[in-house]
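During the second year of the project, the team shifted from modelling isolated chains to modelling whole assemblies. The rationale, set out in the original proposal, was that interfaces cannot be judged from single-chain predictions alone. As a representative example for this report, we include one of the complexes processed in the last quarter. Its constituent sequences, exactly as entered into the pipeline, are reproduced here:
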Amino acid sequence: MSSAMYERMRANPKFQELVARRGRFAWTLAFIVLTMFYGFVMVVAFNPASLGQPLAEGSMWTVGVAVELFMFIFFWVLTAVYVKRANTEFDSLTQEIVKEAWKEQK
Amino acid sequence: MMRQLITALGLLSLSALAVAAGDPLGAAEKQATNWHAIIMFCIFVFMTMGITYWAASRTKSTADFYTAGGGITGFQNGLAIAGDYMSAATLLGLTAMVYSQGYDGYIYMLAFFAGWPIILFLMAERLRNLGKFTFSDITAYRLDQGKVRTMAAISSLIVVCFYLIAQMVGAGQLIKLLFGLEYNVAIFAVGILMMVYVTFGGMVATTWVQIIKACMLLAGGTLVMFLAFGQFGFSFQTLLEKATAVHKLGPKLMYPGSLLADPVTAISLGLGLMFGTAGLPHILMRFFTVTDAKEARKSVLYASGFVAYFFNVIFIMGLCGIIIVGQNPEFFEGGTLGAKLIGGGNMVAMHLAKAVGGNMLLGFLAAVAFATILAVVSGLALAGASAISHDLYARVIMKGQASEEKEIRVSKIATICLGFVAIILGILFEKQNIAFMVGLAFGVAAAANFPVLILSMYWKGLTTRGALFGGYGGLVSAVLFVLFSKSVWVDVLHNPAALFPYTQPALFAMPIAFLLAYIFSKTDSSVRAGQEIEAFEDQYVRAQTGYGAASASNH
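Output from the structure prediction step:
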C-alpha cells in the first residue's frame, strides 16, 4: 500500500478528529467496564457479605445477583452503543478521509 | 476423489459408532447405550458432512481455507464466535458449579463474559484492519517476520495443544458417559471427524459447524431452562426459596464463597479470563473471516449477546438442578440423596434434561454436547494448522515464496498431524487430572499472545527485540507459574507443597511480559529498531481507517 496515501490521510485534520473522538469514546467505555468489573471483584474479595444481602426485606433477590445481572445487561448495552456510533458516525468520517486522500492523488 | 473420501470417512466413523455402541463391556462408569443421543448426533454429523462436501468445492485459495474468503457476515460470525467460546465445559462445568456452589458460578461467568466489551472497544476493528489470516500478521506487520512469527506460532501451538488436550479428554469421558461408547472410540471419532471438517472444508465448513452447533446449544439450553423454570412458575423468588431451603450451603448459597475468597486469585483469574480470551488464536482468527471492520464490530455485539444470554440460562439451569436433580434419588448412586451423582458432578445439566424432558431431551442435549466438542476442536485445529502453514511454512521457511497450492497442502497435512497428536494426547492423558489445562491455555494466551499483540497495535516504540523478550518471557513465566502451582506441582507431580502459592498465573506473568517488552524495546538502538518505529505511522493510519486492509475475495 502506498505510503503516500497514508501520509495524506494522516495530514488530514479529519483524521486527527476521528482518532481523537473514537479513541476518547472507546477508552471511556473500556474504563467504565474495567472499573465496574474489577470494583466488583474487589467487593467479592474484601466484602462478600454485602453481596449476600437481600434487596428488600423477605426478597430472595440478593444485591449480588441484581448487580451481576445489571452488569451483564449494561456491558452488552455499551457494546451496542459503541457499535452503533462506530458503524455510522466514525465509519462515514473514515470514508471521507479515504475519499479525500484519493482525490488529492489525481 | 475428495468427495468420495468424505462420504467414505463419514460412513466409517458412523459404523465405528454403531459397532462400539453394541459393545456391552467397558469401564464401570460407562452408561447404557443412549440411542436417542446417537441418532441425533448422527443427524448432526450427516448435516455437517453435507456442508463440508459443499464447502470443499468452495475452498480453493488460501483465503478460502483460512478465512472463508472473508465473506462471513457479522451475524454468522457472531454465532460462530459464541460457538467457539461456549465449549462443553461451559454447559456442563458451569451448570455443575452453580449447582454445587451457587452464586460463585455466576461470578465466574461474569469474568468469562467481561472480556468481550474490552475486545470490541480496544481491539476488534484494529484486528480486522491489520490482519489477514492469523494474528501474527499483526504482530509481524512492521517487525522481523521470521522471528516474530516463529514466536507467535510457538505460543499459538502451545495454547492450541493444551486446549485440545482438555477438550479431547473431556470429550472421551463425556461420550463414554452420555453415549455409552468406549473412551478410545470416542477420541478417534472426534479426531477423525475434526480432520475431515478442517482438511476438506477449511474455514467455511468449520464456521458452519460452529454456527449449527451454537444454534443447537442455545435452543437446547433454552428449552431445558424453560421446562425446569416452569416448575417454579417462572418465579426467581420461589426458585431461590426452595433452592436455599434444600442446599447444603443454605442461605450462603447466594453469597460469594470460597472460590474467590482471596483477592490475588480473584484478580488474577479475572485478568486471565478477560485478556486470555483476547489472546486465543482460534478466537482471534474469527475476526479475519468477516468483510470489514463494521462486520467485525457487529460480530462482537452478537457474540457477546449470545454468550451473556446463555450464561444467564445456565445460572437458572444450575439453580433449578439443585431442587429437580438434587432432590431426586433416581440421579444418585445407590438411590440415596447426597451420594455421588450418577456419572459425576458434571452431569447435572444432563440429569436436569432427563428430569424435565425425558430421554428425548437428554438425547438431544447429549448430542449437543458432543457436537460442541467437535466444533471447538475443529476451530482449534484450524488455528493450529494455520500457525504451522501460514506462519512457519509460508512466511518463515519459504519467506513468502510458497505457492497457494503448496501452502494449502501444508495446512491440510498439518491438520491431519494435529488430529493425530490430539488423539494420542487424548489417550495418554485419559487418567490424568487435566483441570489445569484450560487455565494454562488461557494463561499463556494472556501472557504471551495478548501483550505483544496489544503493544504492536498501540505502542509505537515496540521493536522486534522487545516483542521477542516480552512474548517468550510471558510464555515461559506463564508455563512455570502453572507448573509450580498446586494444580500441577502437587496434584499431578505429587510434590508435598506448591512452590508458587496461587493457581492463576495471569496477574504475575502479564506484567513480566509487558515489562520485558518495554525494557528491551527502549534499550534497542539498532537501525532496524528505528525503521520499525518509523513504520508504525503507516500501520497506525491503516489500523484506524482500514485502508489497505485485506478485502473479501470474490465468489
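The longest helix of chain A spans residues 63-105. The mean pLDDT of chain A is 89.
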